[in-house]
Amino acid sequence: MESVCPVSDRQRESLKMAMAWRLPTQLPTPGNLHHYDSKTLSFPASLSWCRTLAPDHLLPSSSSSTSTATGTHTRRFMKCRARAGAGAVNLAPGTPVRPTSILVVGATGTLGRQIVRRALDEGYDVRCLVRPRPAPADFLRDWGATVVNADLSKPETIPATLVGIHTIIDCATGRPEEPIKKVDWEGKVALIQCAKAMGIQKFVFYSIHNCDQHPEVPLMEIKYCTEKFLQDSGINHVIIRLCGFMQGIIGQYAVPILEEKSVWGTDAPTRIAYMDTQDVARLTFIALRNEKVNGKLLTFAGPRAWTTQEVITLCERFAGQEANITTVPVSVLRVTRQLTRLFEWTNDVADRLAFSEVLSSDTVFSVPMSETYGLLGVDGKDIVTLEKYLQDYFTNILKKLKDIKAQSKQSDIYF
Where in the cell is it found (predicted)? Predict the structure, then answer.
């Protein structure tokens, strides 16, 4: 790990406290969330998160039981509340730090790298928390950021990365091969607790639109409970819910069409308002500098919500060729999820299929943005549309493909 700066006695004490914390022993599980009114509770500086799961035979009569194609499913009763405990103590005012010093968590991801680039372009001192890995994130150093090695799944590695940091921007999420709870719940709780103890001045957390409406999806429920934990922590924060990234469309639809491979979709009319991650990054830093946004929950959505079929049609038009579409019925996703639930080693697959099932339902992932634009002082006309994004992509990629083919002596090149 790279050296960041000397640690004062006060910071050393907070480091010891942060590393001594106990993480929640119970994970978010499918069920209804029952929240206590924050006006009736007093939240001291020290926090822990208490989640109480009632056994099935203690379920109240008000708990829902729904009939589905796979049988009757009873939702579990759940309580989420903050309570006093042997947790973090904010040692304010602490050692002064520059407001321009930020830590980006998840800096190598689709959104994270755009956050880093935007921050550097705007003159911030950027430190990136990156997990140790065989291929180091040299591109972040090349851009001008400082890289420190730490792992959210190992809480003891977190505190040292926060020394001298004013603001945390959390873009991280677990890898597909990892249990969702490891990084997205336990790791985020540890990060927030450390931020509290180290006197971090602001915390930006990215969540998922409508996460409060789908407790049956572990990832969405975890995001919602993390929102609540951050709100109750007392840290100055901004929560940003996202609908979908335009960049994700490239690998899912654009590339398979160009390579004449199958494009996978469902038969559900879900609509998603995709946004360019560069716009997400730009709006994030506008919000970061706007004191009126402190403590607020914002949702960022693109100019228009699109169905899967509309996106594929758009890609076909710009690519100049038809897609080989393989449609997967939503009913198949449901059955597959139930089957993977039967085995312990496939539970995480089932959790991710649950998220896919929501995306494949008759849902709209979008919100009106006029109020948010007004709050941030942004002109909605400056937000990139999906048509413009895909047109630029296909124009550039097709030009490169033609150049490569023209320079090659082969006559049977396939892309």
Answer: Plastid
Tell me whether residue 366 is in a domain.
yes
Highest mean pLDDT out of 71-80, 185-194, 392-401: 185-194
Q: Is the dihedral of CA 357, 360, 364, 366 positive or negative?
A: positive
How far is Cα 18 from Cα 192, in angstroms, rounded to an integer? 10
Same domain, 191 and 156: yes
Tokens 């929640």 locate to 24
Q: By the 8 A CB rule, do 81 and 99 touch? A: no
pLDDT in tens, 115-149: 999 999 999 999 999 988 777 788 999 999 999 99
- Residue 39 to residue 335: CA distance in whole angstroms: 43
Q: Pull the structure tokens for residue 163.
A: 């020394």
Q: What is the model's pLDDT at position 263?
A: 84
Of 223, 242, 261, the residue that ends a domain is 242
Give domain status of residue 307, yes or no.
Answer: yes
Higher-confidence residue of 345 and 378: namely 378
Same domain as 228, residue 165: yes
Q: Supply the CATH number for residue 178's domain.
A: 3.40.50.720
Cβ atoms 189, 158 nearer than 8 A: no
**Which residues lie closer than 8 Å to 42 by C-beta, 6 or more apart?**
none
Q: Are 169 and 103 in contact (CB under 8 A)?
A: yes
Could you give the residue ranges of the DSSP H alpha helices within 163-307? 180-181, 188-197, 218-233, 247-249, 255-258, 277-288
Take residue 166 and report the two structure tokens written for it: 């004013």
Dump the DSSP string for 310-322.
HHHHHHHHHHTS-
* 142 & 237 share domain: yes
